[in-house]
Amino acid sequence: MAEVKLLGFWYSPFSHRVEWALKIKGVKYEYIEEDRDNKSSLLLQSNPVYKKVPVLIHNGKPIVESMIILEYIDETFEGPFILPKDPYDRALACFWAKFLDDKVTAVPNIFLRKGEEQEKAKEKVCEMFKVLDNELKDKKFFVGDKFGFADIAANLVAFWLGVFEEASGVVLVTREKFSIFCKWRGEYINCSQIKESLPPRDELLAFYRASS
Q1: CA gap 132, 188 in Å, rounded
Q2: What angle do CA 19, 135, 158 make, to 5 degrees?
């Protein structure tokens, strides 16, 4: 029996945050795909409060919430550090990870809205992109010279956003408005740490089109 198990959805950016962290650390794990409409007893027992993925199970003990899981992985397993060791850089990484984790959940909801509601939601989210566009000037990563904690937290806007836009026909980000962010996004999806671990874009696109 595997010492480490991950319960997730293949299409979820939050599940992929954990997968990427495990792969960066070189941790062997068993991946268990959950069914959104028929959640397993293991998931419900492991996360009785929120009843959602991702859940990491290590030596029979469940850890929930993707960013909390990332910190646990970084502190528990040997391998490259995900959070910087320098206290200031670590504080910066935690700040940007929290900023992203708080803000990005509003992005998918935009594509479910219509008319005036959607326009108001777009304006609000575009404020986030202005902040990111300014922060990412002359940067490949959020903190330091390595792909890390805050970058993993950014995966929804870096990769999934483009899929949501194509599936819905609603465009939030253009090079004319957010040139720095768009350049960063292009480099992000070609980053060696995650390039081979991204879900197939065509399959993801078909999934979200069918779900909308």
Answers
A1: 14
A2: 35
Say what the pLDDT of residue 208 is.
Answer: 93
- Chain centroid offset of residue 146 CA: 17
pLDDT at 1: 44
Distance, in Å, from the CA atom of 167 to the CA atom of 208, rounded to the nearest integer, reads 6
Q: Which residues of the chain have pLDDT under 70?
A: 1-2
Query: What is the pTM for the complete model shown?
Result: 0.94
What is the 3 state secondary structure string of the chain? CCCEEEEECCCCHHHHHHHHHHHHHCCCCEEEECCCCCCCHHHHHHCCCCCCCCEEEECCEEEECHHHHHHHHHHHCCCCCCCCCCHHHHHHHHHHHHHHHHHCCHHHHHCCCCHHHHHHHHHHHHHHHHHHHHHCCCCCCCCCCCCCHHHHHCHHHHHHHHHHHHHHCCCCCCCCCCHHHHHHHHHHCCCCCCHHHCCCHHHHHHHHHHHC
Which residues have C-beta within 8 Å of that of residue 205, sequence separation ≥ 6? 163, 166, 167
For residues 55 and 43, is the Cβ–Cβ distance under 8 A?
yes
In this structure, are residues 63 and 72 in contact, taking their beta carbons and an 8 Å threshold? yes
